[in-house]
Amino acid sequence: MNDILWNLLLLSVPGLPLLLAFPPLHSRLPWFRYLAVTPAIIVALMSMTYSIELSWLLFGIGLGIDGQAQLLLGVSALLWIAVATLFSRKTSNSKAVNNLISSLFMLTMAGSFGAILATDLVGFFVFSTLMGYGFYGLLIAGDDLHHQTRRAARIYLVAMIIADVMLFEVLLITALVTENMSFAMAHQGIAQSDYLTLYLWLVVFGFALKAGIWPLHFWLIAVYRHLGSAMAILLCGVPVIIALLGMLRWLPLGETSSITTGVTLQGIGLIGLLYTCFLIFFEWLKNRSFTMITVYTMLLASGLFIIAIGTGLTDATTWIRYENSVYYFIALLSLALAILLALTIRLQQHHTTTTATQVDDNTAMWFERWPATAVAWAGNIGSHTLPEWRSGWLAKVNHLGLLVCVWKRSLAANERNLQGWTVAITLFLTLAAIITLLLIFH
What we know:
Elements: H1 3-20, H2 23-26, H3 32-45, E1 50-54, E2 61-65, H4 67-89, H5 95-117, H6 121-140, H7 147-177, H8 183-191, H9 196-211, H10 218-224, H11 229-237, H12 239-250, H13 259-287, H14 293-314, H15 316-352, H16 356-363, H17 366-383, H18 387-413, H19 420-441
Antiparallel strand pairs: 1-2
Helix pairs in contact: 1-3, 1-5, 3-4, 3-5, 4-5, 4-11, 4-15, 5-6, 6-7, 6-12, 7-9, 7-10, 9-12, 11-12, 11-15, 13-14, 13-19, 14-15, 17-18
């Protein structure tokens, strides 16, 4: 294949979804969602390393394909096909709303494909920003939008704005040290500059906020609770995965070492894992629900990812040896989250088909049952004791039973206050992390 055809094919991966975002075009094509994915599938199946430079676009944007990009592009294309199938079943009575959702769908797809193919910081920033705000539009588009969904979308929007401001500052810092904004040249320039530490932390916090990594995961849980199956798959496979990829490509891993930053990130990742384990434990005791298992898996995987990033910043040689494994980790994570989400929806549907009585019997928490059981057992023992002790014993047992009833009513009335345990655990683990790091450096 000659260069002209390769250029057209590579440009069509993000370009065709952008073109089909116009309502006059996609409204006339019944299979436009699948048509938009076709160039990405073709490029992912062709084993060839190729790149182009678009110097006339913005400050110069590069697109390229290699083995790592082919893997991620292929997985992303599969997820988009699944999401397109689910979206095709979700239609509105309003033609204008359908056109709006289709346009936002195409913009989000173009942004995700472009971010995977981007070979420079500016290109990745532009495409990821397009993807992020397109996804926000999908969150709030529709006739039957719930107020909780709108509130979660606003939280996501605030998080995206803060993250984009951080990453824009990274672009300005990079422009001070090098004129070439490609990943390779930017890494070399920033590794030898005085802005290295600031660059590292801005990149980490910016993409951690975009990916919902602990302790910046507040928007991820808020948004996930109010999503349907199609948007949930999109959340797992697009904003989160692209943010992890961005952190991987923007950081100068393998070019330089920063032991302090690396050890700190390893500590944050470890605490994130512990926090998620506590969250799973308390959530399971409280609700016995399958609905949040996917987002908890995301938090666990992101904690492992941060530990790997910290290891790469601590030892550049180790990172060079295992760099390809991290790309496989991201690709497998996106597929695993989609499969887990499908299984979760299936289990949740089966769970809700049981009768209310069975649900109450199965989901009653052990610490709600044992006080009444203990009081009844104590009363039976008291009825068989000596006559001179029986009346006093039963009086104390009855008093204890009244206290248990008061405790249960108070617990039911103040159930919302129990949500503060999540904040308390977070603060406790953060304090433990700070103390641990101080002991290490001391």
